[in-house]
Specification:
By secondary structure, the chain is an alpha/beta fold. About 30% of the residues lie in helices and about 25% in strands. The strands form two sheets. A five-stranded mixed sheet has the order 3-2-4-1-5, with helices on both faces. A two-stranded parallel sheet has the order 6-7. It is elongated and about 65 Å long.
Length: about 200
């Protein structure tokens, strides 16, 4: 089986201007003290379905966050467009209590790949913390005529149009999709991207 490992990072993000905790830190000393944050339940927005890695990460940190903050922490899935729908929800949040778990690679290239994305990831979010990394593997069927990357890539020019790259779903814009686009820029048409089932539900 062909396995090439890469990593994608999950970053806990919040809208800086909409988070009162940040405003309190920068307020003048003479200003009246604000109420302790949070004052109500906190939402964690996730752009992928239940059972996906970002969803599991969010649910794993929700309970300890709730205990630390003294308020309920609710995970809300806003699925679609490779995380851009969830990103838009976080970017437009005005309740001071909305944060998001996002894949940094997706957010980094979102506006570059699709100028119509209604927010600018570089301006709309304030990174709070790196909360985890996950491996990405390049795989092939067990009966494939190659066993590693060294055997696969030398023979690829002869079968460029026979290669399919299976993605997590439509609108998914992770680093592997970016890598495919870069490969086509350098070598011409090659692997055909084929959207699959949503992440977390590969058996359907």
């Amino acid at each position: 089986m062909l396995k090439t490992t890469a990593r994608r990072a999950f970053v806990l993000l919040a809208v800086a201007a909409a988070t009162s905790a940040f405003a309190q830190k920068s307020a003048p000393a003479a200003a009246a003290p604000a109420a302790a944050w949070p004052t109500k339940p906190v939402r964690i927005i996730v752009g992928f379905p239940g059972g996906s890695t970002p969803d599991l990460v969010a649910r794993t940190i929700a309970e300890p966050l709730s205990k630390a903050l003294g308020q309920p922490v609710i995970v809300e899935n806003r699925v679609g467009a490779g995380g851009n729908i969830a990103g838009d929800v976080v970017a437009k949040a005005t309740d001071d209590h909305t944060i998001g778990v996002m894949i940094n690679g997706n957010m980094t290239i979102a506006k570059l790949l699709n100028p119509a994305v209604p927010f600018d990831p570089l301006k709309a979010f304030q990174p709070l913390s790196l909360i985890g990394t996950a491996p990405l593997l390049l795989t092939a069927p067990a009966n494939a005529p190659f066993n590693n990357a060294q055997e696969f890539f030398p023979g690829r020019p002869q079968r460029r149009h026979q290669v399919e790259l299976r993605l997590a779903g439509r609108g998914h814009r992770g680093p592997h999709r970016h890598g495919t686009a870069q490969d086509q820029d350098q070598h011409g048409p090659g692997a055909r991207a084929v959207p699959g089932q949503p992440a977390g539900h590969p058996w359907r």
